[in-house]
């Protein structure tokens, strides 16, 4: 099954990235990080380790999504949008089989709502309406 193959791939990635991060941590000497003008804001090992940890967390998040999709298959709700209750288009499920909803409602739970001055494009882009223009 495609979802189980994807899950196995993400599990391998998460495990490998965590192992690389652990190895990088073991290579560092205590007190190795310097924060001065010559070394920047930390050493390369610390940056690589943080990257590996972040990527491992992303892979684990995908595993959680796939597990949720497998649960929906088991309880008979797979392919039904969790927001609207309508069927998710088959093309969307073929592209991303663990999706929880249709494209038009997917962002409702993935992104916080945009807050801005009367919903203007400038406010949505982060620009304030009261600032003078240069």
Notable traits:
mainly alpha; disordered C terminus; 134 residues; 57% helix
Topology, please?
Blueprint: H1 2-27, H2 44-75, H3 90-95, H4 103-110, H5 121-124
From the helix content, strand content and strand pairing, which structural class follows?
Answer: mainly alpha
Distance between the termini: 57 Å
Give the strand tally: 0
Mean pLDDT: 75
Low-pLDDT segments, ≥5 res: 109-134
**Number of H- or I-type helical stretches:** 5
The major beta sheet can be summarized as: none
What characteristic shape results from the CA principal axes?
elongated
Rg result: 22 Å
Residue fraction in strands = under 5%
Order of helices and strands: HHHHH
Question: How would you explain this protein's 3D organization?
Answer:
There is one protein chain. This protein has helices spanning 2-27, 44-75, 90-95, 103-110, 121-124. The protein has 134 residues and is mainly alpha-helical. The protein is elongated, with a radius of gyration of 22 Å.
Summarize the structure.
This protein is mainly alpha-helical. Helix content is 57%, strand content 0%.
